[in-house]
Request: fold
Amino acid sequence: MSNPTNETLTALEGVRVSHATDSDGGTGVTVILFDRPAIGAVDITGMATSSRQIDSLDTMHPGIAVHAVCLAGGSAFGLDTASGVTRFLEEQGVGFDLVVARLPVVPTAVIFDLSFMDPSARPDASMAYKACGYASSSPVAQGCVGAGTGATAGKIRGVTSATKSGLGSSIVYGSDGVRVGALVVANPFGDILDEQGRIIAGAREGNRFLNSFEAICKGEVRTRMGAPGNTTLCVLVTDARLDKVTALQIARMGGNGLARHISPYNTPFDGDMVFCLSIGDKEANPLHLGVLAAQAAKVALLNAARTAHSMGGLPSATDLHA
Reply:
């Protein structure tokens, strides 16, 4: 298994990505377009999710085509971005053939970033539509862009004591050339840990990390959030052939890469979701793919923290480790 540090999700043929970023408002949208319909599933482990057309990924749903994935800030307001992606794809003649029309399938999920900068700033359909027009196979821009614009980490004492995070991407290579790419929007309630288990982005006391896990162990909790203000979103894409059931298992294994580096993970305030989508025909063992997925998710998560910059009065991992 190798992990080229300069390659991202778009190293997979047929995957295009673009962002629309509102740096003044502190929010944005990211679109992932597939040149051929993808098939996959989603593992929803968070209790505070907000989504649209996710039912198409259910293993019992008859749909087997996904044409794009849309990720955005703005909480439930940001779900409007899906309409922009749908309109763009319809104009391109892309969608599930219903005889009387073509219906684009665009699973969409959002993070809560309204408490970060401007609560009236919300990504909308026009932002997503424009982003689709710029989608390309160039390396994914990372950091405080797109859906990661308003992402923060470590909010046990509120967003003002958090660390600025963002969006990251990665790709890993397995045996016989099979690949798994990842894109992560890192907006967790908990802290983000590096490969040695050290906090690189999380709740702070000034310029010192609090350590959310230890604080909670000692009895500190947060019972009123104003709104469920956290979510880590992960999109995994592979060029291996998968059905929905296998994709769900790989999504679950991929989530382990997040769980090992977010502390605590899957809290009652998080809306964590891991997508897994197949766009290829390579043969690969699901166990092998699951381990690759966990690695890809981990690297994308850490990239999300390490490529972020200070914003909205919050320091980034780079600032705190300078």
User: Anything to note?
Assistant: The chain has a mean pLDDT of 93. The helical segments are 81-91, 125-134, 212-217, 244-259, 286-306, 317-320. The longest helix spans residues 286-306. The radius of gyration is 18 Å.
